[in-house]
Amino acid sequence: MCPDKCGTLTIPYPFGLTDGCSLSGFKIRCNTTYNPPKAFLDNANHVPVLNISEDVLIISNKIAGRNCHGIGTQTKFNQSRPYTFSSTRNMFTAVGCDTLAIFSAGNNSDYLAGCVSMCTNLSSIVNGSCSGHGCCQTSIPSGLKRFDVSLSTISDKIRYNYSQNVSKYCSKAFLVDKDQFVFNTSFMQSDHLESLPVVLDWAIGKKTCEVASLSKNFACKHENTRCVDFVNGHGYRCSCQDGFQGNPYLPLPAGCQDVNECASPKTNDCKMICQNIPGSHLCSCPTGYQGDGKKNGTGCVKTLNSKSQLLQIILACGLGVFFLLVVSTLLVCWGVKKRRMIKLKEKFFEQNGGLLMQQLLSSHQSTTKSARIFTADELERATDNYNQSRVLGRGGYGIVYKGIFPPDNQLVAIKKSKFMENQINQIDQFINEVVILSQVIHMNVVRILGCCLETPVPLLVYEYVPGGTLYHHIHERRGSLSWSTRLKIAIDTAGALAYLHSATARPIFHRDIKSTNILLDDNYMAKVSDFGASRLIPQDKDHITTIVQGTLGYLDPEYYSSGVLTEKSDVYSFGVVLAELLTGEKPISQGRVQEEKNLAIYFVLSVERDSLFDILEPRVKKEVRREQLQRVAEVAMSCLRDKGEERPTMKSVHLELQRLISYGDQDIYSLHPHDQWPLDEHQTDESFVVKSTGYYNWSRIEDESLLRGSTQSHSASFEITNASGDLGGSSKLFSRTSSH
Q1: Separation CA 136–CA 116 (nearest Å)
Q2: Burial class (CB within 10 angstroms; exposed 0-12, middle 13-18, buried 19+) of 234
Q3: Looking at residue 693, what is its pLDDT?
Q4: Is residue 248 reached through a cis peptide bond, with omega within 30 degrees of 0 on the bond before it?
């Protein structure tokens, strides 16, 4: 009886502890002087065996090379057959702060490798990392049975003076099982020879399976075994065939025995009946069932008699007919609903002036400026069926969605109105307005791209402006805008209004200029929006009430008496925006005294009390000279005069602001008095004048500020005026002393 235990370690055949109990070269020595006893590879008792499996043997090996306190070593390490160092499990490793480790596969081998480990102190080393900083690693070749290690310093090779503290650390080189090795700086702080796990592959003989099988000493004798050629050198190993388990080097009953797959739930994949056979198993079904009997196959299905089969056929046919009826009914309902939707869209299209829109577009087909008619399906796809994640803003008159049009992923803003009004008699004016506004091409005006007429209330499609409203940047991100940016925004807005008033074929009066209707792109370019081009509301008492509620703080004082908003109303509203840019105050604030809640009144009174610089936003006061701020304040004061005829035109305001920014930090009061205005009544800039003999007037209200989420309403009107007639007496409007 051959012993198979040494302490807690199991010694399987072909390994053995005594003569005759192992194959040649596989004898293991058991040293019983230890408690518990320890297993070793040879008589010298210096290579402990830690574990033995069917393909590898793990030993505890000493450090191959070391260099402590300037004393280096060269080490040779041999392993006789049947053992070979595992090239997949072992790594050649070196640790140290001034270490050059060279590794070779023996005197007659061409294989040479190594690695370098450097560091200045232990505090900079990361434990667990072996990337060259305190620790380095490299792979070993296949078939390695011996190796030589040379360990030296690197500082003398590269002529670099390391810190003297480095010399006290030990350098070491060794083979180690990479799965069990974790680097730690303690390896460099001791000159003791540690032992580390090393993996050895083992094989029988030097012959391949094909050659060895012809020999009488062939180890894989049992019929249930198979031979596998050794991949890490010469020789072979034996293993049990599929469906068998045991020791392939021993005869039965200890050899490869059949595994009963039916006895284990892990191997039994049969649904009902499992029959074990040598090396495998069979699945089957009992009488009255049919199928392959496997859980992952057709399983076992009970067979039916003639009556049951007939009943099953009848039920199947009945279910089939019922299914066809249901599908047919659904298809008919879907078709009826679809035709009804098509007719409804056609009805809305005609009611909303689709025929007129098509006629107008055909008359503008030679230009790309005219509006486009979008279908309802296009807008549904662009908004992901009006998904809530696409909502840009909500207001009293509707919701604005972010739309994306393929194939170039063009971004647009789509306004979906909430209310329906009986405005069929005015729909022609609405269509004309959309077409005309879509042809307003100005970089500081939000463009209307088109509309959808297949819905109860037309949907409007606008240019998408991503930067938010001026109101948001002034009041919700207080102090975020520099003075230069504020002045540029004012110039952009004034330029857009001047263009609408006097440089278009038909002058357009906005009539609801406010910071919520001024959008900013990513570069802080201002774009005027909210022209009220989607709803027709008559100018009556209710309309006036809506205007007052929607524009409180910006409204022209003359409107209360006349009920008419004009070009000079735009000038007044722009003056309030200028006051916002200067002070950072809201148009209406409960934090001010009752008579000064309105920003326009508060600003005018502050200027008249000579306390302008007390109300300016702190950042504005820091970034610009007083003279320029005073001049901009004078522009705002002129725009805020009660009487419309005393206010300048937007063209004059725009040119004055441009002149201020062009002079920069110069002393603008050093300018000659007659240079205070770029234009007077005798110097009309003809490039701004568009002559027209027609008259075109609409009045509407709509919440286009929804483009960026505002909930305030507004108004807009469109009139033909003589642009050159607005400049008379303009030289008096921007005098340094403002009269109110």
Answers
A1: 6
A2: middle
A3: 25
A4: no
In sequence order, which ranges of 152-206 are alpha helices (DSSP H)?
155-158
**CA of 34: how far to CAs of 7, 26, 37, 48, 276, in Å?**
9, 22, 5, 12, 47
Q: Could you give the CA distance from residue 208 to residue 462 in angstroms, rounded to a whole number?
A: 80
Quick one: CA torsion of 652, 654, 659, 660, rounded to 10 degrees?
110
- CA distances to 90, 448, 667, 680, 736 from 732, rounded to whole Å, are 94, 37, 20, 9, 10
Domains with residue ranges and CATH for the chain: 53-202 (no CATH), 209-258 (no CATH), 354-463 (3.30.200.20), 470-732 (1.10.510.10)
Q: 204-253, pLDDT tens digit by residue?
A: 999 999 999 999 889 997 888 999 999 998 999 999 999 999 999 988 88
Nearest alpha carbon to residue 183 among 168, 172, 192, 193: 172
The reply to whether omega before 251 is within 30° of 0 (cis) is no
The closest of 708, 732, 148 to 394, measured between CA atoms, is: 708
Strand 65-67 with 56-62, pairing: unpaired
The strand order across the sheet containing 410-417 reads: 372-374, 448-452, 459-463, 410-417, 398-405, 391-395
Section 716-739 average pLDDT: 33
Pairing relationship of beta strands 508-509 and 65-67 according to DSSP bridges:
unpaired
Q: How far is CA 205 from CA 83, 143, 324, 498, in A?
A: 10, 14, 74, 100
Q: Are strands 135-138 and 699-701 parallel, antiparallel or unpaired?
A: unpaired
Distance between CA atoms of residues 445 and 650, nearest Å: 15
Strand extents, DSSP E, 298-371: 301-302
Name the average pLDDT for the chain.
Answer: 79
Q: How confident is the model at residue 191 (pLDDT cuts 50, 70, 90)?
A: low
Residue written as token pair 């502050």: 606
Question: Above pLDDT 90, what percent of the chain?
Answer: 37
> Residue 65 in contact with residue 174, Cβ under 8 Å?
yes
Q: What DSSP designation does 265 have?
A: T
CB atoms within 10 A of CB 152: 18
Mention every residue, 6+ apart, whose C-beta is less than 8 A from residue 216: none
Give the C-alpha separation, 252 to 14, whole Å.
Answer: 15
Band (58; pLDDT cuts 50, 70, 90): very high
Cβ proximity of 299 and 290 under 8 Å: no
DSSP 646-713: GSPPHHHHHHHHHHHHHHTTS-GGGS-GGGS-S--TT---GGG----------EEE--GGGGGT----
CA angle at 129 for the pair 123 and 135, rounded to the nearest 5°? 75
Residue 633 burial (C-beta neighbours within 10 Å; 0-12, 13-18, 19+) = buried
Q: Any known ligand binding at 402?
A: no
Residue 49's closest CA among 59, 35, 38, 63? 59
Contact 550, 397 (CB under 8 A): no
Q: Three-class SS of residue 254?
A: coil
Write down the pTM of the prediction.
0.47
φ/ψ of 552, rounded to 5, equals -55, 130
Among 93-102, 159-168, 677-686, top mean pLDDT goes to 93-102
Catalytically active residues, by annotation: 512
482: three-class secondary structure by DSSP: coil
The half-sphere exposure of 282 on its side-chain side, counting CA atoms within 13 A, is: 5
CA distances from 606 to 250, 524, 616, 713 (A): 108, 29, 10, 29
> Does the pLDDT at position 719 exceed 80?
no
Q: Which two tokens stand for residue 517?
A: 């209707």
Backbone angles phi, psi at 634, to 5 degrees: -65, -40
